[in-house]
Design a protein that fits this description.
By secondary structure, the protein is an all-beta fold. The chain has no helices and eight strands. 0% of the residues lie in helices and 61% in strands. It has a four-stranded parallel β-sheet, with no helix packed on it. A four-stranded parallel β-sheet has the order 2-4-6-8, with no helix packed on it. It holds the Pfam family Glyco_hydro_28.
C-alpha cells in the first residue's frame, strides 16, 4: 500500500443494525506513507447511536513500513459492542514526518489508540501500547 489515506481498515456506521465481523486476518503487508495504517472505526458517519456490529478475532500480523500520522494503530470500537480478540503481532511502522498537515507531537514516535477494545499485543512492535 502506498500513499493511501487508509491502510488496513474495518469501518462501520454509527447506529448500524446488529451483525458480526469475525475471523479477519491481515498478514504480511508493506506500507509506504500511509495516513492510517491500522484502523478499526465503529463511529464512522454522523448518524447517532453506537454501532451494533460485533467485531471479534481480528489479527494484524507482520505489518511493516512508513506512516505520516502519529496514531498509526487506532481501535475506536463501539461502547455497546466492544471489539474482542484483536491481536497486533510484529508490527513495525516508522513515522516519517508531516506530509500534508499531520504533524507528530510525539517527536516521531508511533502510537496506539484503543477505545472499547480488547487488544493483545505481541512480537516485535515499534510503538508504545495502548494505555490500560
Amino acid at each position: 500500500m502506498k500513499d493511501t489515506d487508509n491502510g488496513l481498515r474495518i469501518k462501520n456506521w454509527r447506529g448500524s443494525s446488529p451483525s458480526t465481523a469475525v475471523d479477519i486476518t491481515f498478514e504480511d503487508i508493506m506500507m509506504t506513507n500511509v495516513k492510517n495504517p491500522i484502523i478499526i472505526d465503529q463511529s464512522y458517519g454522523s448518524r447517532g447511536g453506537d454501532s451494533k456490529v460485533a467485531i471479534s478475532n481480528v489479527l494484524f500480523k507482520n505489518v511493516r513500513g512508513t506512516t505520516i500520522t502519529k496514531d498509526e494503530v487506532q481501535f475506536m470500537c463501539s461502547k455497546s459492542v466492544p471489539c474482542k480478540g484483536v491481536s497486533v503481532v510484529d508490527v513495525e511502522l516508522n513515522f516519517v514526518g508531516d506530509k500534508g498537515g499531520h504533524p507528530s507531537s510525539s517527536g516521531g514516535l508511533v502510537g496506539a489508540l484503543c477505545t472499547n477494545a480488547n487488544v493483545i499485543f505481541g512480537g516485535k512492535l515499534s510503538f508504545p501500547l495502548c494505555p490500560k
